[in-house]
Amino acid sequence: MNRKYRKTIIAGNWKMNMLASEIKPFMEQLKENLPKVRACDVVLCTPAVLIPALGRAGKDCMVAAGGEDVSCFDKGAYTGEISAAQLADVGAKYCIVGHSERRQYHGEDDMLVNAKAKALLAKGICPIICVGESLEQREMDLTMEYVAFQVKAALSGIDAAQLRRCVIAYEPIWAIGTGKTATAEQAQEVCEGIRAVIRKIYGARPARAVSILYGGSMNAKNAEELLACPDIDGGLIGGASLKPVDFSVIVKATDQD
Ligand code: PEP
């Protein structure tokens, strides 16, 4: 982390878990465990139907609500889709785009991820843009080449002012939900590489200001070491974000001064 130049963010990704009736008890427990003074912003990205309840419950403990996906279209005949305007309307401040589960199960490609990021920016929502390699790509030594391609494609046509509101999440696919975390060295190397890619496109200052998160089996035990890396500015957390105590421990791990 480098709090002098950029925000530290701990963002949960609930995926297709939790019910509206579970939010109150979850948030009560979270509130009890979260530090009042924090070294990071705390976000919970949830299924869109839960955002209004989460937004209400999260207000008094400074937890922002976010979406997990968005339509690239503004409005109209797109049954089942949810627009950026609708997310903003119910209080979403952030939204994940390009999660590997969307890429894998819904065939999302880099162009679509780029269009979704732009749709969010147009409505004042910060996109959390996910990138990351497969195990096969890592074993073939293609990690940085592939991730650099994804970052460039996702940011295509996004200017430096808009970049300030973008968050990148490096999530190696082989580490998501598997209990296999990237080592701090592996995660730092790729996050540093992502910053270098951004520096080439936008210059040193914008690159220095972008928050780059690590995601992939981050938990209460390994968070401190990962977050100590200079180019890892927080975490995108799946499984552990469903456990208020563990999630709070990760938030506390950002306080390393
Ligand atoms: C994720 O889904 O973004 C994620 C990182 O999941 P987990 O923490 O469970 O690996």
How would you describe the overall organization of this protein?
- The structure is a single chain.
- It contains twelve helices and eight strands.
- It has an eight-stranded parallel beta barrel, surrounded by five helices.
- The chain has a single domain (9-252), classed as Aldolase class I (TIM Barrel, Alpha-Beta Barrel).
- Strand 1, helix 1 (20-33) and strand 2 (41-45) form a beta-alpha-beta unit.
- 42% of the residues lie in helices and 15% in strands.
- With 257 residues, the chain is an alpha/beta fold.
- Helix 1 (20-33) runs parallel beside helix 2 (51-59), helix 1 (20-33) packs across helix 12 and helix 7 (143-154) crosses helix 9.
- Bound molecules: phosphoenolpyruvate (PEP).
- Phosphoenolpyruvate is lined by residues 13, 171, 176-177, 215-218, 236-240.
Draw up the topology in text.
Blueprint: E1 9-13, H1 20-33, E2 41-45, H2 51-59, E3 63-67, H3 84-89, E4 94-97, H4 100-106, H5 110-122, E5 126-131, H6 135-139, H7 143-154, H8 160-163, E6 167-170, H9 184-202, H10 204-209, E7 211-215, H11 223-227, E8 234-237, H12 244-252
Parallel strand pairs: 1-2, 1-8, 2-3, 3-4, 4-5, 5-6, 6-7, 7-8
Helix pairs in contact: 1-2, 1-12, 7-9
Bound molecules: phosphoenolpyruvate (PEP).
- Secondary structure class reads alpha/beta
Topology order in helix (H) and strand (E) letters: EHEHEHEHHEHHHEHHEHEH
Strand fraction: 5-15%
Measured on Cα atoms, how large is the radius of gyration?
17 Å
- As a percent range, the share of helical residues equals 40-55%
Q: Which of globular, elongated, flat, extended, rod-shaped describes the shape?
A: globular
User: How many separate domains?
Assistant: 1
Low-pLDDT stretches: none
Q: Average pLDDT value?
A: 96
